[in-house]
Amino acid sequence: MKRCSIIIHSVTGNNYIIATHLEALLEERGIEMRLYRTEDSDLHISANKYESANEYYEEILNVPVATVEKLEKSAMIVLGCPTYFANVSAEMKTFLDSTVDLYASGALEGKQFACFTSCGDSLQDAHMTLEAMRRWAIQMKMTEVPTGDLIHISGEEGRIRPSLDFGKELEAFANKLAAAIEEP
Ligand SMILES: Cc1cc2nc3c(=O)[nH]c(=O)nc-3n(C[C@H](O)[C@H](O)[C@H](O)COP(=O)(O)O)c2cc1C
Question: What is the CATH number of the domain that holds 66?
């Protein structure tokens, strides 16, 4: 069975919510799933400051931390990251930078790739975040699954959670990933 790993950074929980739903959808479609998070040494500070960050704090901490080795074992890698100043977060960038040896060895070449983001209010910023994740995948010579752009808009302090309509978009996204990973 081919493995798909989802790697997220999430502070106020939205990317975490999307990732856990995506994990369930892909499991239902017979795919071996793993969910990992990036390291985040400041998470407890945000959880003390924002109700929205407190809500999923323990659940996020329970997600195992991503390692370079986990990427190597995956046929498909999905990144999920908040839009921070029209880019990926520092935590996600630090994780991506830690994969430099895989760039040198070409270990991710040909693996399938997809990504999503949650942003406050700017689709333009979110597109740039998706592009930043795609640039990493291009550098790694991965193959992007043509899913279209999956963007969640969360409003002030990330309080607007993914809706049922967003869930339908996520299901279409999952269907495309499932079809791609099953290709010989
Ligand atoms: C440091 C910081 C920078 C942000 N920059 C942007 C931005 O440039 N554009 C935007 O639309 N939202 C921005 N946001 C809002 C987040 O993208 C949004 O709250 C997102 O839902 C957080 O994802 P999470 O709930 O998974 O942590 C920013 C939030 C923070 C904390």
Answer: 3.40.50.360
